[in-house]
Amino acid sequence: MNMLYSTTVTAIGGRSGTVRSDDGLLDLALSMPVVLGGEGNATNPEQLFAAGYAACFGNAVIHVTRNKQVRVEDGDVEVVATVGMAPNDSGGFSLTVGLDVGIAGVDQETAEVIVAEAHKACPYSNAVRSNIDVLLSVRAR
After folding, report:
1. Is the pTM of this model over 0.85?
2. Is 122 in contact with 56 (CB distance < 8 Å)?
3. N or C: which end of the chain has fewer CB within 10 A?
4. What are the start and end residues of each CATH 3.30.300.20 domain in the chain?
């Protein structure tokens, strides 16, 4: 495989610890959410995953329109990612994901086609496919 990019992040202390990237640009404290018994005074892994997925999916929307008649620019796309955690049948936990995608300057049908193509291209979507059901909602705005 021809690697386009790679990064390394180290987590120490689990959900109540810290995360730091090898270049130092990401350097955050972590905290369990209050609803899970934590203090809720710092970010958590689900928020980080939601942020990464939303940003990556937004770029996938832009990417799939690069050579099309209808082009989506950076400011035309908004992705709101909702990531949840639920118990699974094997005594562990599973993630849930919802992506609400808004695209300006296109009609609803075009927005739906673009989002379907982006879902096939996005690395996060490809990583979770067959593992996490991703609920997509699309709106032309």
Report:
1. yes
2. yes
3. N
4. 45-140
